[in-house]
Each structure stands twice: as C-alpha cells, then as structure tokens.
Amino acid sequence: MNKNDLSKRSPAMDILRCLACFGVISVHFFLNTGFYAVPINNRRLYAMVYIRSFFMFCVPMFLLLTGYLNCHKKPELKFYKKLGSTLYTYVAAALFALYAYPKLYGIVKDIFSLNEVHFEPNSIANTAAKILSYNTFYAWYIEMYIGLFLMIPFLNILYSNIKTQGQKKLLILTGLVLTALPAVLNVYNFKTPGWFSDPTMTVDPEGNAVALHKLIPSFWTILYPVTYYFIGCYLREYGLKLKTWLNGLLIIAWSGLNGLYNLWRSRDALFQWGAWCDWGSLFNVIQAVLIFTFFMNLKYEKMPLFVKWCFMKLSGLTLGIYLISWSVDRLFYPILEKTEPVIHKRIDYYPIIVPAVFAISAVISYLILKLRQLAVYAFTLIRSRTAKPSDS
User: Fold this and answer.
1) Three-state secondary-structure class, residue 55
2) N or C: more exposed end of the chain, with fewer CB within 10 A?
3) Is the dihedral of CA 206, 210, 211, 212 positive or negative?
4) DSSP state for residue 302 in the 8-state scheme
5) Does the predicted model carry a pTM greater than 0.90?
C-alpha cells in the first residue's frame, strides 16, 4: 500500500479490531488471576468488576466487524477459500501451545522457581483430538466463527432482500428480542422475599432452591452472533449518527450502569456469572454498538501515516494474538501468582501484564503469519519452476 492509498484509508476498523483484541486479553486477566474465586467485598474488587464489565464489548465488537466487513459477500468459492487463513492461524496457535509452550514454561519455571506442571506427551492422535475439540486454546470462538462464516453469504441474501430501512430495523429488533432481552429480563426471582436485596441468594429461608423466573422465551439466545452480524450490516449501510461528545458520554454512562448492575448481582459474594453479563446480553450489545459508533464517526485526516500503518499491520495479527495469548497467559500469570499472593492486589499489575501479553502474542503471531507467507511463496516458486512450458 503506497502513501496515497494509506492516507485515504480510514483506520477506524483497524483501531476497533485492535481494541477488541486488547479487550479479550483484559477479560482473560480476570480469568487467570483468581478473581472469580473470591467474594467481591473491597474497593479493588469493585474496580475489577467495573473493568471486566467494560471490556466485555470485545467479542461483540469482533462480531459487529464481521457483519460490517462481510455484508456484501456472495456464496462463491473465492469467499470460502478465505476460511483457510483462519484455520491456519488456529492450528498454528494450537501447535504452539502443545509443543512450544511446555518448553517455554520449563525455562520460565527455572528462572522464577514456579511450580512443576505435568504435560501430557503429544502424539499425532491426541494432537488432532485436542485441536478438533475446540475446548482449549481459547478456541470456542473459532468453533463459533466457522459456523458463522459458512452462513455469511446466505445471511447476506436474507439481509439484502429486505427492502426498507424500517424492515431491517425490525429484523434487528427481532434478533434482540430473541437473543439479548432474555439475558436481562429472565434473571430475577419474584417469589422469594428479600431476593432483590440479596440477588446472590440461591436458597430461601425454608431451604428450597431459588429459581429465576422467565418473562420471555429464551430458546434462541445462542443465536446472538447472528444478531451482532445483522447489526454490523445495518451500521455499514446506515450508520449511527451521534455527536462525538454525546457518544462518549453515553459510553461512560452505560459502562457505569453495566458495572453497577454486575456489582449489585455479586457484592459480598463470588462474582455471579449469568446471562446478564455474557456475550449476548443487551448490556454488552449496547456497549459494543456505542464504542463501535464512536470510533467510526471520528475524523482521522490528521492521523500520521505511520500510526495508520501500525494499526493496519497490528489489526491483521489480532486473531493470532487472541489465540497465542492462551500460551502467553500461562507463562505470565504463574509469575504474577507467585509475586502477589493476594488476589485483589493483582489488579495493580494489570497495566503491566495485559500490555505485555498483548505485545508478546503479537510478535509470535507475526512470526506465524510470516511462516505462512514463506510457505506460500515457496510453494508458488516450486510450482512455477516445475510447470511445463505448455502450462504457462
């Protein structure tokens, strides 16, 4: 890409992809620091609830970008070939986790006197089984994305054949009712006295289990990626016009409300992970859309070309960063656990750990990308040299 093309390029999508990736690593900070194992009962833990709640826009952001960038794709072979790069990145990251990570952990263990970890010997069979199970290496997203990717051209046919903006709004509203609203409407108990003052209550005064009551059907909540996809398509076609200051204010206000709600559900108890704070929740839908709109509506004419170039290159590594971070997390967090045994004090290391995991994962992701490019170049070169003259 020459300077003229780069100067015309809007970096918004690159920035959003990088921000979403950073958000994923931030959410994993809480997964790997013991946050979910202690009662939420002091200021540092309150802050951790708010930070976690904010960064839950990360996966929704990736799904919005998928809709925004792919809304015109058709059911053609050239489109489906693009899935190959995703699968390559996943397999490469999984092989790194299975073969390189244990050796790296051995080095880190000796330097920092960490606990011994037993690694199962790898064979071709169990390597393939682990890769195809999609239940480790943060691979649930890949399993979900493969299905979404295969449906994209047909989702586009559905969306493009809806004629009016109003009907497309109705499509999105239907998706929200089916996948997002149940997460905030079906999560209360209306029969047990005192439940609203103690929403972590699981047993009533008589010792009976406390159940949450449904107000609307929730069978289709697993379809939340499709809802995000259609919202991304809509934002590509119509956008969402908000003044920058108002958009920023709404992000702050909604993030505060989101954090406060999660704190209400969890205060003085273990963090309550329910539908209200999962990826498809209406809280996270609105938060992701507001952040997406904020960056899409910014003006980037004065951004230096070098900064644009950096975001462009980094955004191309985000899937690899996300997947490689599984291994890097398992190198960093045992060190943090040894350095700071008090769980709520580990938040002080967030500004160090998360950027470090992001940066190292980016370097490894870059090397994986270059390895693929080298293999493609070598294959092309060999093919051209062995081709018969009649084939050229």
Assistant:
1) helix
2) C
3) positive
4) T
5) yes
